[in-house]
Every structure is written in C-alpha cells, then in structure tokens.
Specification:
The protein is an alpha/beta fold. The protein has a domain at 81-243: Rhodanese-like domain (Oxidized Rhodanese, domain 1, 3-Layer(aba) Sandwich). It is built from eight helices and nine strands. The protein starts with 10 loop residues before the first helix and ends with a helix.
Amino acid sequence: RQLFRSPSMPSTVIRLILKRVERDQDIPVKSKRQKSGASPPGGEEPVGGARLLRSKSFSHEEMENMLDNRHWELIGDFSKAYLLQTVEGKHQDLKYISPDTMVAVLTGQFSSLIDSCIIVDCRYPYEYEGGHIKGAVNLPLEQDAEEFLLKKPIMPFDVSKRVIVIFHCEFSSKRGPRMCRFIREKDRACNEYPNLHYPELYVLKGGYQEFFTQYQAHCEPQDYRPMHHKDFKEDLRRFCLKSR
C-alpha cells in the first residue's frame, strides 16, 4: 500500500486498484488470529469453521507490473483519463487515435485542453521530405527521439492543460509503436514511479498512408513517398542499419 501513497494518484484510483488486486487473487479478508491454538500446516487458519488463506504480499516491482499490464483508461501517471477518443489497433498495450481525431487536434478543437501536441513522425528522412503531416517533427532514430523529448522535456505553459505526444510511421505498424514504447520506457527510468514527463501517448492508426489518403490538405508537401520507393533504396539500406 506504500506504493499508492502518491499525491499524483487520486484516492478513488487507489481504492479501485486495491479492490481489483484482492478480487484477482481471490483472497478473503483475514480475521484476527485466534489467540489459542497454532495455525495448521499450509498457512491456513480455522476461524468459525472456515479456512482462510494467508494473504500474499507484493513487492514494489510486482505492483508496478500489475498496474502497467492492466488496460487502464487512465493516462500513464494515473492522474486523469485519456482526453482523446481511442480506437482499436494492432498493439493492445498502446492507445490509437483515428485520422479524424488527429485532424480535430490539428484544427484546434481541443485547444482549451491541450497546451502542446507533439506529432512524432518516425519515418526515414526521405519519406518525411516527400510529404508529412503539418507540424510533425521527424525523429526516425531512438537517440533522436530521446534527445528531443527527454533531454529537456516539453512542459505546458498553462499547468491546467495537457502535453500529448502522437507517434506514427508509414502504417503505424512497427516503427511508430516501437518508438512510443521506447519513450515510455525511458521516461519511466528517469522519473519516480508513477510520475512521467509525457503520461499521455498515442499512436495514429493507419499511419501517414491512411492519413494522407483522407486528409491531403493537412500534409506538406501534399504527397506521399513510401519507404520502399525505387529511387531511395540506398537511403533505406543506410537507415535500416542505423535503426539496428
């Protein structure tokens, strides 16, 4: 329970977590041990004719894993719910948004709630130069993303508003999701759990390919250069080596 004594986590969330832990372990509430008589073998104690199991203690690391592995509708630091509507995607541990939701963010429909939206384009530079979402920053390598986002974290000017990060690649199948997980892992490592610099991360479903098909007007230049373009085979080979 010491883990949950954090000012960043609401008391209602704490109670919900503890209730779910008890239910998942299927451990009844333990009554006071009878003063007379020793406990039978196996850690069970007879109380009023019932046999109660000894409750299990969880380490700090075990509790962190239990929290991270659940499909919470709360952002990474458990302080509030996700702002943007999410959709089902390829990776169940990540939060996906549709191109429609991306456009809603780009056109300022969430300006009263979002202080800064960072769109991370994880494609290779020749893909980015051939067409990208307006305002997106090109961070194809892990060291690029770590330096841009975590060396000097982007903080909101208005503390009542949010900073959100949206990752994507060509199809948001591999590079975008991988970068999203990498930033969350590095962010966890440089903060005291459950605090994060960027608790609200999303992945654009369908990536640039699907976004460009629906919303060319929000791309610059208004074009789409695939990763396997015939004129950039050498660039592809070079960046694939760097990514490894």
